[in-house]
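Extended Data, record Glycosyltransferase family 4 protein
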Amino acid sequence: MTNRPLDVLIATPLGKGGMGGIDRIMDEVRAVARRKPDARVRVRFSTTRGQGSILLAPLHLALFLLRMTLLKVSGRIDILHINLSSHGSVRRKTVAARWARLLGIPYIIHLHGSRFRQFWDESPARRAGGIAAMFASASRIIVLGNVWKRFISEKVPGVAKRIVIVPNAAPKPVLAPVKDETGSLRILFLGKIGTRKGVPQLVEALSMLPKDGTWRAIIAGDGDVEETRQEIERLALSDYVVLPGWVGPRQVADLLSRSDVLILPSFDENLPMSVIEGMAAGLAVVATPVGAVEDIITHGKTGLLVPPGDAKAIAASISLLLQQPQMRNDLGENAERLHAAKLEIGMYFERLIEVWTETLTDNS
């Protein structure tokens, strides 16, 4: 190794300001790298899908491959860091990984996709083989929790020693908590509104709560907004539930500061950012034990876990938090301590630097 900074190119789908979880956390990495430059690394970001029409995705991918080539020719790339989801992301990143191998650039796969397991299992043999080859040739594989480590190890047994767990992270809240003068329980959902995130079950659960002014909810995100609004109206919940649509980072920070409970009753996840953000803000979290959620949520200690698809269990958990404010406070405080100890973005960036450095050492 030389004394010069380690040059890392990070492949992201949409780029800065993208609405997906991968882009959100990479935006945080970008911010940390800019705010606290580290002499050990020089990080560059490049998109493989791009924002806007999917029809332009091949152009973005071609430009990404060209940039990678130029960086290689000029000696300004040591490692390619590939953020991987599923479906179109897999198709594009398979090409990027193959191109990196041709150029002699070691690469890291960073698996984020919540639907990746289903996508791989349902892929035809040729595509499945291409995915396996991509993982088999990776210098390191970053996963977000133990369940994903087991899955990849079973799919490609030879890579087990190269898998490292780096859970998602979030910065400390930028806004202090704001108390509600009415004393109502403030419930917050952040994510893509639809069936995968369990929003229909959440709405059903809210309809089971007493309409007595002791609670209110915000369901924020894009997706099936109008359909959900119609269901809320049908259930006479319009006075209790608000749907603002997609919200940006500043609005998310404001919503977190003005909430008591973060709820995410998903059917599929990897390790959801909204849960980590809720923990960072000291909220009581109600979630489902899917993906790597159980790695950070211990039922009754750092949050409450409910079975996927169980509206009655969701309603019961909310009612419990409504009736027992001390439990709500304890869960939030425990979650906040766990975030500070293991899920803070500065620690996350430091861990990435360690993985990059280990990768370069192994390939020297």
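Summary. The first strand starts at residue 6 and ends at 12.
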